[in-house]
Design goal:
Layout: E1 2-3, E2 10-16, E3 19-24, E4 27-32, E5 51-55, E6 61-65, E7 73-77, E8 80-84, H1 99-110, E9 117-121, H2 127-134, E10 138-143, H3 146-158, E11 166-170, H4 173-183, E12 189-192, E13 197-199, E14 205-207, H5 208-220, E15 229-234, H6 241-250, H7 252-255, E16 259-270, E17 275-287
Parallel strand pairs: 1-16, 4-5, 9-10, 9-12, 10-11, 12-15
Antiparallel strand pairs: 2-3, 3-4, 5-6, 7-8, 13-14, 15-17, 16-17
Helix pairs in contact: 1-2
């Protein structure tokens, strides 16, 4: 498992009973997490929170803010700065466990000794975009949500990357890649974080199990002759990291045998008792260079 353990502004304080207790800067939140199946031994500190997201039995949920909070604030990860703001669908604008993937991509780009062009699909608030851009890559990021894309632009300003080459595209990811194939555009690296289920701006339906292989096959057609990496993240329940590994072995590794394929889980260290909270899976092809 790859563990994101280089944070200072974020901390998973505790987890259990289907929830996690997290610190974002100076604010503490309590949110649902189905992976935290073990018992909580001491729940006193769970009562001293700034915000509590209650899951509804009928789906969705709502925030209960126990203290006055600003509408937004920022946290840092190394040289990067991101906007944090609780949303009505539980998220706060960042997936802290992804820091381990940001580190991988930044290191890979910095040591490539050439200019790298990155395509970031299902880009959300653009944290991965800011990471690879700060490492010197040019980036095209695509997300179907205009609101998330606007948030990503705010993160660009916070990271002082306004003068870097970043394009923000609001579009269905599959349709965008299909157009890039027709236009003949090429990328040296691709990162994607596809949802389990989603809809594009024109009501295009995305289902991970049904569409992921086709999208990867399309993406291979926009890769340059010497790709640097191809990284897939997933939070889809029931999908093993070996599935991503097998897909990449039968696509990327077959076409680019000079690379290697890795897969596994990503997670967050839990302060109490040195436990680890599993947070998703990854699969990646990367060059051996």
């Amino acid at each position: 498992m790859k563990i994101s353990n280089n944070w200072e502004d974020y901390e998973c304080l505790d987890a259990g009973n289907g929830e996690k207790l997290e610190r974002f800067g100076s604010y503490i939140f309590r949110r649902p997490d189905p992976q935290a199946m073990w018992d909580i031994l001491d729940d006193k500190k769970w009562q001293k929170v700034d915000g509590y997201y209650h899951r509804s039995n009928s789906g969705g949920g709502y925030w209960e803010f126990l203290k006055n909070l600003p509408n937004q604030w920022t946290i840092n990860y190394k040289h990067l700065k991101f906007k944090i703001s609780p949303t009505n669908f539980k998220h706060i604008g960042i997936f802290p466990e992804q820091a381990v993937n940001w580190d991988f991509m930044m290191d890979k780009i910095k040591h490539s000794n050439r200019h790298i062009k990155v395509l970031n699909l299902f880009a959300y608030t653009g944290c991965a975009t800011m990471a690879v851009s700060s490492a010197g890559a040019s980036v095209v990021q695509v997300d179907a949500s205009k609101g998330m894309t606007d948030w990503a632009k705010e993160n660009m300003h916070l990271c002082n990357l306004d003068d870097h080459e970043i394009r923000f595209i609001v579009d269905d990811c599959v349709k965008f890649v299909e157009r890039e194939i027709r236009r003949g555009n090429k990328y040296d690296a691709i990162v994607m974080d596809p949802p389990s289920y989603g809809r594009g701006p024109n009501k295009e339906v995305w289902k991970f199990e049904k569409n992921i292989y086709h999208l990867i096959d399309l993406c291979m057609q926009v890769l340059s002759d010497k790709p640097l990496f191809f990284l897939i993240n997933s939070y889809t329940t029931g999908i093993s990291s070996i599935v991503l590994e097998n897909i990449l072995k039968t696509t990327m590794l077959k076409k680019y045998p000079q690379g290697k394929v890795l897969s596994g889980e990503i997670g967050l260290p839990i302060t109490r008792d040195n436990l680890v909270l599993p947070c998703g899976i990854y699969g990646r092809w990367e060059t051996n260079d």
